[in-house]
Specification:
Helix content is 58%, strand content 12%. It is mainly α and 481 residues long. The N terminus is likely disordered.
Length: 481
């Protein structure tokens, strides 16, 4: 599954004024106010009653007072032509009957009649599509309004009608997919996005808007597949998407995740290595708390490489995360553990000292540093940190750190320990104060907050939350006051 679900494309509002009306009235209002003769030859001429139907429609548009009567006359003669005058196979008869339905706001009747006209005159499909477009837009507009008003179920009524009326248009399907995804109806969302992709594909080669829609909807379709656990389908969709957008690192990361879900670890490693190379070559966004180089979550790549026991790659990833944010505590911690696996004492000590400088009262950090000196066979320094661990009054653990725009929140805890001095004499628990500093990308303290920790006996835990205000906060450190 995607680590972060990509936000799906917003509802598409077709060009034109927004209609406050819905239903038949909106469809009627969307029709051309002036008579438009068909350009397709198979819709012109024919039986005299078919011609009469066209004439009645033309007259109805120029006479508001007689409009309904003239449309009724058009409806009557066209039906007579079809049912009693052997014009059931006339595409023109069905075409004009469809136009009568449109001017009366009867979408179902228009859909049936125009589908028949297109079936009988396939060369006129483009003209039928253009005729349907205003009605399609009239159905899409209230759907968009209802979505924006937080009423997706009502919006679906219009979207389904629009999709049925113009199945070769992608926008209704696209928006249905969004609604179904938000409702966690993943099978329906996938079906809707599949139809949107297929509908946009037909014109993608010649229309940039359709090409863009096809591309973005294919990504959305892959995201739905992943959420539904359909990783084989997700891989296929992501391969298609990357054929159009080969530099999209989000898609590459998603593809690697689906490969892993399919137990295709070697394929995932290839992509993750490419992502890491891109991040290392391209640099990153300075100050990014998550360690993202060139739009790549290198911290996540490091975790995966470590899990795969690819320690060289893991170290490279965590180094890149630290290049973006030198005080990224979790990257330092993971890098230190990587160097333990590599039995690299020099690097472990260097990283361990930075880690303890940020987070000095965490016993795991002190053990990592002691282990580094042990690998280096520096017994005096090893003993120093073993003693520090023994004398540590509390174990401080930061569970989450969330920087935001102009603020940051840190959640942690202090747990009492059975501290002893070097002679094994117990050290009584005493209250203490921790001073948390919140740092910018350069390591400068933006602001600080104090946390009072009561005297904690062995095993007793005190939770704390610290909120800081200030721009550019990406990291933290603390010290005992």
């Amino acid at each position: 599954m995607l680590k972060r679900m990509v936000v799906l494309a917003s509802l598409t509002l077709l060009p034109g004024a927004v209609y406050g009306q819905t239903g038949n009235t909106a469809v009627i209002a969307a029709q051309p106010s002036q008579y438009q003769a068909p350009t397709c030859e198979e819709f012109r001429g024919g039986h005299f009653k078919v011609k009469s139907g066209a004439t009645y429609i033309q007259s109805a548009l120029s006479s508001a007072s007689n409009r309904e009567r003239l449309l009724s006359d058009a409806d009557r003669v066209l039906r007579e032509a079809i049912t009693t005058d052997n014009q059931a196979s006339s595409p023109a008869a069905w075409y004009w009957l469809g136009r009568v339905y449109l001017y009366r706001g009867d979408v179902g009747g228009a859909d049936t009649s125009l589908a028949k006209a297109q079936q009988l005159a396939p060369n006129c499909a483009d003209e039928v599509r253009k005729l349907k477009l205003p009605t399609y837009a009239a159905l899409m507009r209230p759907a968009s309004e209802l979505m924006q008003a937080g009423n997706p179920d009502s919006a679906l009524i219009f979207l389904r009608q629009a999709a049925s009326f113009s199945p070769d248009a992608p926008y209704a399907y696209q928006n249905m997919g969004i609604i179904y995804f938000n409702k966690k109806q993943l099978d329906s969302a996938a079906t809707a996005f599949e139809k949107a992709v297929a509908a946009s594909e037909t014109k993608a080669a010649t229309d940039t808007a359709y090409a863009s829609l096809r591309t973005s909807t294919t990504f959305n379709l892959a995201a739905v597949y992943q959420n539904a656990g359909r990783h084989k389908d997700a891989v296929e969709a992501l391969h298609r998407y990357l054929g159009w957008n080969p530099a999209d690192n989000d898609a590459k990361r998603a593809l690697a995740n689906s490969f892993r879900a399919l137990n295709m670890v070697d394929s995932a490693k290839v992509i993750e290595s490419q992502l890491l190379t891109t991040a290392t070559a391209g640099g990153g966004a300075p100050g990014s708390a998550g360690g993202t180089g060139a739009g790549v979550d290198v911290f996540d790549l490091g975790v995966k490489a470590f899990t795969d026991k690819n320690y060289e790659e893991a170290a490279r990833a965590f180094h890149q995360a630290l290049a973006d944010n030198p005080n990224y505590r979790d990257a330092l911690f993971n890098l230190a553990n990587t160097y333990i696996q590599m039995n690299n004492g020099d690097s472990l000590v260097a990283v361990g000292e930075r880690l303890v400088g940020l987070d000095p009262m965490n016993e795991d950090n002190l053990r990592l540093l002691a282990r580094g000196y042990q690998i280096k066979k520096r017994q005096e320094q090893t003993l120093k940190y073993v003693v520090q661990i023994s004398e540590l009054p509390v174990n401080v653990q930061v569970a989450t750190f969330q920087p935001g725009a102009g603020s940051a929140t840190l959640v942690g805890s202090a747990t009492g320990r059975a501290a002893k001095d070097i002679s094994e004499k117990p050290i009584a628990a005493v209250p203490l104060t921790l001073v948390f500093e919140f740092l910018d990308a350069s390591g400068k303290a933006v602001t600080s907050q104090e946390v009072a920790v009561k005297a904690l006996p062995d095993g007793e835990k005190q939770d704390f939350t610290v909120t800081a205000q200030g721009e550019g906060i990406v990291a933290w450190r603390y010290s005992k006051k």
